[in-house]
Design goal:
- This protein is an alpha+beta fold and 457 residues long.
- The strands form five sheets. Strands 5, 6, 13, 14 and 15 form a five-stranded antiparallel sheet that branches.
Length: 457
């Protein structure tokens, strides 16, 4: 699916937007790979209800469309060729509801402070090869005319500033006189008047207002018209105005691209009143990584406590936990071989490994402790346990690896649980299984010698 958007230029009429949307619809209809087209104009846009004239296209393509990634860029370029004073863009939403969009939040004291910084940030993103579809939320400005009344002249003609306002108000939405009920629905009753529009500043000055004496007074005689600009919308957060600058990441490694962008931002010279921070998917990733890191630390602590209670001591469980560092090594090597990046899925795989890999070490050390109680030395108990437990350890590891193989080869058919999880678990389980039979026995024997030395002293 391609979700295309059009943000109109301030002042564009609904008729102009409708004509442009129909041209875009015909453009999509001419494409052979397009199955269905749905578009809306105005507040029906669920992603931005406040956009009264924004156009939103949902275009479904055939699943067999070739080089779909290139099609998105082609569509954006060709939509821009259709025309329109506003800006064409698209939203890139994955099947999992996530996005590869990074967002830079620019804060400032005033809109005048914000504008130059947003321009610099946009230029910085345009220099990055891995970014496309760069846009900012800073609103464009309307031409604004402020009518300043002369109280002295108004009083001479028996007029007030309020009368001027009421007279000019007739050019907009007519006031509601009353509300009646018809067929169970409330209907507004308005007085139909001829609508007046202004083509330019002089047209506004030539507008006449009737005084109480019946004299038509031109607006230019009792007021001055000042030109200026006013932003379409002003957004605030924590008492400051802000704007978002967004860009789509072409590379699969969103974290690396975000890091490069952050490094470039750190080198920017910003005014004291302005601040630029990374948001969007980068903020989500950082928050998720922090939460998963805390979950992994808690998992290690819980596993250790359970083992201490089960084994009745702290040294044997500590030796078992020495199998965990090698899962990280195996997981990272697996990701490197498969060409995958460290993602949320791979971190979930790491969390799973904490519970999976210790089982092999538990099976081994439990056998060792039983043999020690039967009178064998630690060395002989380790040798006997390694030979006895080798087969079940390999069987459980191979069964788990086989179960995750379809996921690692990308045969899962979903986007929420990705290939990275399977690769991480398989790599970590493989390395920990092989090294459990070497590292854990060595560490366990060292701890037992240390304990015997303390007892002898």
């Amino acid at each position: 699916m391609i979700i295309a958007t059009y943000n109109p230029d301030p002042g564009q009429t609904t008729e102009e937007i409708n004509d442009l949307a129909m041209e875009a619809e015909n453009y999509f209809l001419d494409k052979e790979d397009v199955d269905t087209i749905q578009y809306s104009i105005g507040g029906e846009n669920p992603t931005n209800p406040g956009a009264s004239n924004q156009v939103l296209f949902f275009v479904n393509y055939d699943k067999e469309t070739e080089e779909f990634d290139k099609e998105r860029k082609t569509v954006l370029d060709e939509l821009k060729d259709i025309g329109g004073k506003g800006e064409w863009g698209y939203q890139d939403v994955s099947a999992s509801g996530g996005s590869n969009q990074i967002t830079l939040v620019v804060n400032g004291e005033t809109m005048s402070d914000l504008g130059p910084v947003v321009t610099d940030v946009t230029s910085l993103l345009e220099e990055q090869d891995d970014l496309t579809n760069i846009s900012s939320s800073i609103s464009e400005s309307y031409d604004q005319y402020t009518i300043v009344a002369d109280p002295e002249k108004l009083s001479q003609l028996g007029l007030t500033a309020g009368q001027i306002g009421m007279e000019l108000r007739n050019t907009g939405t007519p006031p509601v006189l009353t509300t009646v009920e018809k067929d169970g629905e409330e209907v507004d009753v308005v007085l139909e008047v001829d609508k007046k529009t202004y083509e330019n500043k002089q047209d506004l000055k030539d507008t006449t207002i009737q005084s109480p004496l019946g004299k038509d007074v031109p607006l230019s005689e009792v007021t001055t018209v000042e030109e200026g600009e006013s932003s379409n919308t002003i957004t605030r957060r924590d008492g400051k105005v802000y704007a978002n600058v967004t860009a789509e990441v072409l590379d699969d490694n969103v974290g690396k691209v975000s890091g490069d962008v952050q490094a470039a931002i750190d080198e920017m010279e910003l005014p004291d009143s302005s601040e630029v921070t990374l948001g969007g998917v980068t903020e989500d990733i950082n928050e998720s990584f922090t939460q998963l890191g805390l979950a992994m630390a808690a998992a290690v602590a819980i596993v250790y406590l359970v083992l201490v209670v089960t084994f009745g001591g702290g040294l044997a469980p500590l030796a078992i936990l020495f199998s965990l560092p090698f899962t990280v090594i195996g997981g990272l090597v697996g990701l490197l071989i498969a060409g995958e990046t460290i993602s949320i899925s791979s971190m979930i795989g790491m969390l799973m490994l904490i519970g999976i890999v210790v089982t092999n070490a538990i099976v081994l050390i439990d056998r060792v402790i039983h043999k020690e109680k039967e009178g064998l030395t630690t060395r002989n108990a380790l040798l006997e346990a390694a030979g006895t437990r080798l087969r079940p350890i390999l069987m459980t590891a191979l069964a788990t690896i086989g179960a995750l193989a379809p996921l690692a080869f990308g045969l899962e058919g979903g986007a929420l649980i990705s290939k990275g999880l399977g690769v991480t678990v398989i790599g970590g389980l493989t390395s920990s299984t092989l090294l459990t039979l070497i590292i854990v026995p060595v560490v366990y024997e060292f701890f037992m010698k240390f304990r015997r030395k303390e007892r002898s002293e």
